[in-house]
């Protein structure tokens, strides 16, 4: 599929797709005319990139993962280690967010009580 269609399917602007390509995160095939051609595997990969970004993985680390992925199965253990480490970071973040949420809930309850009294 062409870049415009790919953009629509991913929900990402064409400029972001070109940025990812410049950074080496994606490498779409080129047709005989030199135009980018994306396929279903590219959709799956870009969705994974977006998931990593949403969970706080820096682009430099995503690039490292992409480079390892391009090297094939010889890098499976290293890629898994990266994801395990990132998963642990996410668990830590969730714990901190839950603690912060509990503090906010207490503050909201305090304000509700104060409003009732006034």
TrEMBL record:
Database matches in InterPro entries: DNA-bd_dom_put_sf, MerR-type_HTH_dom, MerR_fam
Name this protein carries in UniProt: MerR family transcriptional regulator
CDD domains, sorted: HTH_YyaN (cd01109)
Organism domain of life: Bacteria
Alphabetized GO MF terms: DNA binding; DNA-binding transcription factor activity
HTH merR-type domain boundaries: 1-68
Signal peptide (UniProt feature, chain positions): none
């Amino acid at each position: 599929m062409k870049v415009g269609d790919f953009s629509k399917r991913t929900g990402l602007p064409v400029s972001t797709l070109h940025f990812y390509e410049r950074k080496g995160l994606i490498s779409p095939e080129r047709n005989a005319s030199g135009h980018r051609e994306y396929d279903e595997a590219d959709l799956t990969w870009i969705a994974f990139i977006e998931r990593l970004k949403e969970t706080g993985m820096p682009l430099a680390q995503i690039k490292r993962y992409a480079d390892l992925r391009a090297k094939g199965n010889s890098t499976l253990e290293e890629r898994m280690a990266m994801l395990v480490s990132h998963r642990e970071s996410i668990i830590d973040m969730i714990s901190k967010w839950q603690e912060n949420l509990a503090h906010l809930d207490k503050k909201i309850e305090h304000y509700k009580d104060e409003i009732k009294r006034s």
